[in-house]
Amino acid sequence: MAFPGVGEGDRPAALMTTLGRRLRARLRLMRHSPPLRMPSTLRALGILGMNERNGDYIGIYNDRRHYPLVDDKLKTKELALAAGIATPELYGVVEIEHQVRELDRILDGRREFVIKPAQGSGGNGIMVIADRRGVNFLRASGASVTRSELEHFISNALSGMYSLGGLPDKAIIEYRVKPHAVFDAVSYQGVPDIRTIVFRGVPVASMVRLPTRQSDGKANLHQGAIGAGIDLASGRTVDGVWFNNVLDAHPDSGNRVRGIQVPDWDELLTLAARSYDLTRLGYLGVDVVLDRDHGPLVLEYNARPGLNIQLANQMGLLSRLKQIRALAQVPDDAAARVALGQQLFGG
Ligand SMILES: Nc1ncnc2c1ncn2[C@@H]1O[C@H](COP(=O)(O)OP(=O)(O)O)[C@@H](O)[C@H]1O
Ligand SMILES: [Mg+2]
């Protein structure tokens, strides 16, 4: 649940304004028409807004009863595992305060792992441990963490400090994803993730989120990660967007963001499409990471995916969604739905 109710999912106004401005400028050039106005302009440009997303898509296609499956990362893992969908391996769960003592058992022999709240969001409360140094742990950033600091961090997670609604939570300890080298030149530390919007089981848009120095290795856009659109047919990246600016180079490395071929692209989209069968959520955000050794892994699902995938792709979602909405039936087979999405929206 990247941004349920908070974060980038619900902070679209500035982004949409920027997208609108850019598309309007483009239209102006094309048609020599006078400057257009909001919000009818945004509608004309086919940009999905917050109210439409909530009312016409989430409200109609997402049954609230299925939310707990995606709002709790532990439940998502169990669900995915049962369906043969790969996720980062679960090392252990700490559920109540006194279980913090069980850490020794969970962490025995492990030099690297990730701790996160089961119901966290927006990249909050995530500790990535990359190595050990004596009795201490080293974060991905290189900072040292003592055992008691680690326990304190977990206690905070259990108290709900980072979680939806602030209710008591569980702490997940899992495999630390080793990112595939494909994005090395355009990510600063951390693990890029690939977000796909899957509507009625059909992939309609994708973007990759690339960590920057500012985002502290996390792939959350409002923390300062770059979002780069991906062409559905080819799996190649288009321009990137950083905060509200289009850019073609990574701010830290200066390397080009455009034209990167995502490996295992069709497999990744099929994973995303199959996630619909799993969650029964008709309007779903699927976040996948590419692991060096294990290939595509589902990191999390989102029942209220954000709108800025439109900015990253410099296109509005509305016409795509309407085309899928108009279908009397969508194919049962996930691979057929991928082919449909690629045929309709790729290129
Ligand atoms: N197992 C992991 N290994 C490495 N990095 C991770 C792992 N889990 C999360 N991260 C990093 O933290 C970010 C946020 O994690 P995520 O599970 O998506 O939670 P949230 O709901 O807070 O977005 C990810 O985009 C990724 O960059
Ligand atoms: Mg996330």
Automatic annotation (TrEMBL):
UniProt source species: Salinisphaera orenii MK-B5
Gene Ontology terms: biological process: SOS response
Taxonomic lineage: Bacteria, Pseudomonadati, Pseudomonadota, Gammaproteobacteria, Salinisphaerales
GO MF terms, alphabetically ordered: ATP binding; metal ion binding; ribosomal S6-glutamic acid ligase activity
PANTHER family in UniProt: BETA-CITRYLGLUTAMATE SYNTHASE B-RELATED (PTHR21621:SF0), RIBOSOMAL PROTEIN S6 MODIFICATION PROTEIN (PTHR21621)
Matching InterPro entries: ATP-grasp, RimK-rel_E_lig, RimK-rel_E_lig_ATP-grasp
Pfam families: ATPgrasp_ST (PF14397)
NCBIfam families: rimK_rel_E_lig (TIGR02291)
Domain ATP-grasp: 77-328
SUPFAM superfamilies cross-referenced by the UniProt entry: Glutathione synthetase ATP-binding domain-like (SSF56059)
Keyword tags: ATP-binding, Ligase, Manganese, Nucleotide-binding
Signal peptide annotation: none
Keyword Acetylation: no
GO CC terms: cytoplasm
Keyword Acyltransferase attributed: no
Record protein name field: Alpha-L-glutamate ligase
